Amino acid sequence: MWHQPQARCPLIVFLVPRVARYPDGPIFGYRLGWVDQLSLENRTALVTGASRGIGAATARALDRAGARVALVARSREDLGKVAAGLGRDPVVIPADLREPGAAGEVAARALEALGSVDILVNNAAAAARLPTVDTDAAIIDQMLAVNVRAPLLLIAALIPAMTQRRQGSIINLSSVSGLIGTPRRAAYAASKGAIDAATRSLAIELGPMGIRVNSVAPGVVDTALWASNKKVEGVIEAVESLTPLRRWAQPDDIADVIVFLASDAARFVTGETICVDGGMGRALDLYGGPV
């Protein structure tokens, strides 16, 4: 009796070259030509916190996928360095999203330069790791301003244009700290938990207009923000031991998931918080020794 090789079919589909063309239709539950749905040709994107780390990697990944990208961060010089590596006429928008009016100004400038914004990546963030007893109002206000207020105001400013086109993908950057308890990060965790909650609410509100809203929750990512921590003896090994995949995330690991969520390949995905943390937030090394 012949048995359908179910476990091998997905592998065969993944190996289909992008240049190949096949009749449109389902085979073993897959729609041929799905790789093309990852293309972002003729789309526009706005990425905040785009001057380094995850934001810069996301801008490059969106550009490679075909999107024209507007880059937002405080430093014009650093944005210029990222923009120089992009090939689709990027737009540089220096802005300090801590300021109350900055989000609206950024949205207006992006719409003027790009004509539309199909993809919004709310990546800019303020973070602090310190005991709660040392946390003051200024620290809390700054994190809430950048991590919650600015994303919501950017979304609000872009809703009319996305609604008019009846399409849009909004990706908010969350954190493993918003999903599980991490020490000395109460204010930061609160801000990331808030953006996850907002993501779910917005998905319901904006779904009927053809706008999808998701969040991505990285674990520990090997960026400049962790450079000083990595110099502390044992930190690298400790992070690896808490990660089932036994390595630190790279910015491209996060950026590739963002491109997926921005694309038509994720056309029926909304309201989700997707962990890109190597399993850190979903695994507990309780005891792995002999019984």
Description of the molecule:
- 39% of the residues lie in helices and 14% in strands.
- The chain has 291 residues and is an alpha/beta fold.
- The protein has a single domain (40-223, 250-275), classed as Rossmann fold (3-Layer(aba) Sandwich), CATH 3.40.50.720.
- It has a seven-stranded parallel beta sheet with strand order 5-4-3-6-7-8-9, with helices on both faces. A two-stranded antiparallel sheet has the order 1-2.
- It starts with 8 loop residues before the first helix and ends in a 15-residue tail after the last strand.
- Residues 1-32 have low confidence and may be disordered.
List keywords for this structure.
two-stranded antiparallel ribbon; globular; Rossmann fold; alpha/beta; 9 strands; seven-stranded parallel beta sheet
Number of domains: 1
- The share of residues in extended strands comes to 5-15%
CATH superfamily: NAD(P)-binding Rossmann-like Domain
Report helical residue fraction: 25-40%
CATH class bucket: Alpha Beta
Rg (C-alpha, Å): 20 Å
Mean pLDDT across every amino acid position: 88
Tell me the major beta sheet. 7 strands, parallel
Blueprint of the fold:
Elements: H1 9-14, E1 26-27, E2 30-31, E3 44-48, H2 53-65, E4 68-73, H3 76-83, E5 91-94, H4 102-114, E6 119-122, H5 137-165, E7 168-173, H6 186-206, E8 211-218, H7 227-230, H8 235-241, H9 251-262, E9 273-276
Parallel strand pairs: 3-4, 3-6, 4-5, 6-7, 7-8, 8-9
Antiparallel strand pairs: 1-2
Helix pairs in contact: 2-9, 4-5, 5-6
